[in-house]
Amino acid sequence: MSSRDSKHSDDLKDAIQGIETLEKASTSSIDANYDPSFVRKTIRMVDWRMLPLLGLLYSVALIDRINLGVARTAGMQEDLKLQVGNRYSIASMIYFFPYMLLQIPGNLILRSIGPRNLLTICVVGWGIAQLGMAFVKTWGFLCLCRIFLGAFESVFFPSLVFIITTWYKRYEVQQRLAVFYLSSIAISSFSSVLAYAISLLAGKANLNGWRWIFLLEGALTICLGVLAWFFVPDFPDKSKWLTVEQRKMILDRVEADRGDSVPDELTRAKFFSHLKDPLLWAFGLMFLASTVPAYAIAFFITIILKAMGFSTAQALLLTAPPGIWAAISCFFFAWLSDKTKHRAGWMVVQNMITITGLAIAAYAISNPVRYFGLFLVYGGATGCIPGVLAYSSNNITTHTKRAVHTASIVLWGGVGGIMATTVFREQDFPRYVNGMWATIGLQLMMIVLLGITTFVFKRRNRLRREGKIGPLEGQEDFYYTI
Predict the structure, then answer these.
(1) To 5 degrees, how large is the angle CA 386–CA 390–CA 393?
(2) Which CATH architecture describes the domain 35-258+268-464?
(3) Of the candidates 312, 421, 307, the residue with the CA atom closest to the CA atom of residue 370
(4) Which of 339, 258, 253 is nearest to 27 (CA)?
(5) If you count Cβ atoms within 10 Å of the first and of the last residue's Cβ in the chain, which end, N or C, has fewer?
């Protein structure tokens, strides 16, 4: 091994040791003040209060967002003439413009309005928009409903991520994000099966099957929005369902871990300072690269399967298994990432899995082999979504920076949705080779960005340990997660 390689290895070991020392110090500090069984019991209470409900709500958001492809297969294309020009792509894409524009404002007002009020408004609002799609007579009104759907859903996901990351320590975050996200993926994977069952109501009340899909799913969303008002948890410092001692313990753990348990005041200077952080843009581009293949599968999997020769019923039913596999893969890599206290390397592995799946789906001759490729694409891309969010949240402090970063990064997911609906063009049907290559290019870009951020974080950690730079992220004992 060369001296340069040896130094590189020593730097990595020093970085890991520094982070592990910080983690052990914070843990021992907590154990010295609280009974470990009390800590475990409280954290489990938080898990059960937060993750199942938020996962269910987000699964409904995903279903309502992506069921356009299922409805198209179930008869909407003929009724609204979506085969004309690029109508389907436009109807899919137009959702993302309000979705992108309102994310940062939504996160900035979250604390003042409160999670319960804001999330309830969002869920009920998009449920009404979903319900409205059951009665549209023209393609134009479908697009209008999609705009309202995007507006109300825009605040939802970044708010959920922001809320979850304020409750846990850094190396507890990705598993929680993955549980919340994979539960939504697993449930939404059966949306096509559910939609197929609902579409069998075609003819009842003089409504076609696709109209019943929007009608019943919209009504369910509105009911869950009302439920959210009673059970959605607030921020740790404001939650009344915990005892005073439990709240204090949660805040003490966060303070010992990263020093931002107390929310700071947002100013104009802070807002623009957070936006100018180059790392924010790097994380945003990574999120873009992760969401393009995930959205492409969501919007086009039933169409691709039908082009393979499967019947409408078979195409709808076969969408579930890749989603189940994606949920399993997502949680496995999240567990591995938290256990090893390492983020970037595991995401590179998932990027390579995605690239392999894209190549198989584009060029394999056998349809079963192409179907296997879709498993790899969905599994690899889905795991990177909570991975990027955890990687980002681990390397920032303060509530204002967390609010701006989370919303800005998720905003890039909207760009990913637009790209997925445009690079997978109608004229490239049924293999969408151009779209596959565009998505492969994004995976390669993400690998490069992960290499750059790893270099930057390792260098800053080393300089801090050597005393050559001041406290990282304004916290005396803070070190970046690699």
Answers:
(1) 135
(2) Up-down Bundle (1.20)
(3) 307
(4) 253
(5) N
